[in-house]
Amino acid sequence: MQALLSFEQSPPLAAPLRFFLSAPLFVVLAGVLLVVDGGALLGSRWSPATLAATHLLTIGFMLQVMLGALIQILPVVAGANLARPALVAALVHPAINLGALAMAAGFLFAEARWLQLAAALLGLGLAVFLGVAGRAVFRVPSTSPSIRGLKLALLALAATVGSGLFMLLVLAGGWPVALPGLANLHAGWGLAGWAGVLLAAVAYVVVPMFQLTPGYPARPAWWFPPATLAALLLSTLAVVVDAGWLNLIGRLLLALVALAFIAQTLKLQVGRRRARPDATFRYWQLGLGATLAALLMLIVETLLPAGVVLPAEWTVLLGVLVLVGGFLPFIIGMLYKIVPFLLWFDLQHRSLPGKAVPAMNKLLDEPRMRGQLHSFFVAFALSTVSVAAPAWLAIPAGLALIVAGAWLAHNLLRAVLRHRDFRRAGETAKMPA
Amino acid sequence: MLEDHRHCDDLFAAAEQSAGDGDLVAARLAFGQFRDAVLRHFTGEEATLFPAFEERTGMRMGPTQVMRMEHEQMRALMDAAVDALESGKTEDFLGQADSLLITMQQHNMKEENVLYPMCDQQLGDAAGALVERLRSELEAA
């Protein structure tokens, strides 16, 4: 109990930070792919460049930040202390980074050895993480919707990793297995089950905390994570027994549950007591709006009569909305709260009692975050429109994504360097004259 | 006690809003009210609730000690924010306010999720009298 309240139980600063600092580089890499191979990338979800770019964003950026954040927040939100967080971070971090790069290379160059290497790195790294995090979290009783959400998200991550590894081996070995159905399930478990449920579990805590909104109502908050997993299980069962109608029910249920969560969050934000719209708030608004649009597309797609064939660009647009419009903004918005706070908290802990330390905006100020936010809005708008006119807009969209990713990396790195300067200044001040 | 946390949040939001709008007079007034309310809340906890908890459980160096330390941090942050407001440095004030808000929220989260339930559990029989005392302390001044 006391462990939950004390600073000493927080993992070392470097454990989460290393994930946060390397993640933005994968946004830059995805931008490079868009510049180099935009036509193929935007033309079909199955092109090698699309698969590579998707996994640069989902593994290299999203998963990477989420793992780093979990190492930090599991002790605070769930009272679940990870065993040896520094060692876990030191093992998982390189495995994720190299694994994401190997996978992108494997897709791009259709090279079986790279895919096998990716499978080995990601499989081992995530097995370590799931083992350690699972052991810590499943020992804690589910006393809040957040804790229940964290547990279910970890189960969904295991399903995502399992299905992903299987597909990598199929591709690398050239086995005769049809993958599209499985790939849809993999995407559903990864995006809705893992990323979506994790996002909700964290939002229950941070949305009221940062924006001073009312809390999420308890009953829907408890039900959202299990309802999401139930919908995914229905779709999974549907693929196994080959029942199209069941898949339809699963997908509709998933879309409705997610819509309910988005609507609830928007409603809370309307009732917020903090009127100042900061960069995080703007990022969340973009994320909520784009996800809403993507969910409506998913519903339309599901309800279309059999025989109507959608253009290949439809799914690509859906992907751009969910990833670039939805998850990236949510995550960047959170990074802009988490990183300055962790650095500031560390300074605070090192300072002499009663002596004020530099405020958070001295580490990372609002104008810098806002500038990067605007560059990201441009990147999102161009990526979305470029689906309709890849020949004209893929290159500008890719360049904009490179700028937004590099700017994010710069902002975060600058905050870390300023923290180091302040820390040194503080240490000199502590020495006797 | 939980409602008092929300009350302090409201006062904080009002002060930040005024400062953001550039209305320093209103911001000083609202932040003053916020600070008074928070200090009363701290005093209520430190003088009444925490000693009762420590008495009953024998845990003197436990959670209440961590909470006292965080109260100290927040007192320093509020002082720094007042200084910034007094000298008209709006940006500095908003920066301090941001740090203060997060410290305050995660502190409240610990109290509400861990310490208050422990207090309810440990002090169940004495709760009536204790709540009355806390209430009068929070309303005083």
TrEMBL record, chain A:
Keywords: Membrane, Transmembrane, Transmembrane helix. Signal peptide: none annotated. The keyword Membrane applies. The chain crosses the membrane at residues 20-42, 54-74, 86-109, 115-138, 150-175, 187-210, 222-239, 245-263, 283-304, 316-345, 399-417. This is Uncharacterized protein. It comes from Azonexus fungiphilus.
